[in-house]
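Give me structure tokens for this 193-residue protein.
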Amino acid sequence: MGKVLRVFDLDDTLVKTSSNIKVTHKDGKETVLTPGEYAVYKPKAGDKFDYSDFKRILKNPKIIKKNVDLLIRMLSNPQKKVTILTARQLTFPIRYYFKKEFGLDVYPVALGDADPQKKADWIEKHIERGYTDIAFMDDSPANVRAIDALKVKYPHINLRTKLVVDNFVPTEKVRIFESVMRKSFNKMLNKIN
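Here you go.
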């Protein structure tokens, strides 16, 4: 029997905050992204990212209850190593928030880097240390894909991933598509009636 590891992302997985990522494009224009938008953002040549909102106390945190409940349940089992693995640069704000709000002593790891491979590398180090039952939860499809790639490399490891999708923030294209579909559906209903 191997060791058990449970890994949770922080932003838009356990909590939603009003922290944003500022992107300055090559032409000098600036875009502000929420963590949910950033999770699906495709960087363009010349983009410069400003993560300064993530270097301080969590800004207006709102828990994602079902995921925090799962975190609490996992923390109650001393046989499991439970970690909050984040691209943020500082662990103190995370520890402070969970201690103050829930009385929890969480173990955050701040990678200080949004590259999905960094999360995969961290998990792979734990596989090399004997962890054979691993579950990973994140709102970023790129992060989940990076962890899923480890399943091929380590087929003997029980490695499960969960993409958090119920916190999806639609892009303008999605909003337009939904509006068009809603109008089409209403027209169909009117023809039937």
